[in-house]
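We now fix the convention by which a protein and its fold are recorded. These numbers are not coordinates but entries in a learned vocabulary of local backbone shapes. A record is reproduced here so that you can trace the correspondence yourselves:
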Amino acid sequence: MSYDIKAKEPGRNYFEPIDYIPAMAKNPSLRFVMVTDKTDEIVTVNQQSGFVAKMRQAGLRIPQYFVAATDDYHHGVTSYTQLVAAGCILGKSDAEIATAVETLDKRALEFNEQRRKEIAALGKKAIASRPSSDHGPAPAAPTAPAASRSRTAGKPI
């Protein structure tokens, strides 16, 4: 992989965080955290855990929170990171933050499982409602009687 390390836009410059560990270790007031999905396809768990190990070897405390991101690449941990950052800002302990992350992760997993079931059910319903080619076209959906239609029907609102 090739990186332009002297890009015109500073935000596009490539850097390796591990290279900055000695400088970070000189500032003990920094608080580090790592939010990791073990199946992250962009920055692998080995890369993230390796960074955490190097930070700890340098004497820095860095909790690593494991979560289940729901995007296709399992990289989108922004909601968890925001929760962790809020905990840091509020002076919460690592244990308190871990409890909050676990709660959010559990709720996200439950929500996504429910969503998956609903999508599957809608898919089955759509398949079941499709007309079979052996029986001709499906009947037209019934329309409401003229008296029950809205007075603004057909008029822009």
The chain has a mean pLDDT of 79. DSSP finds four helices and two strands in the chain. Residues 94-129 form the longest helix (36 residues).
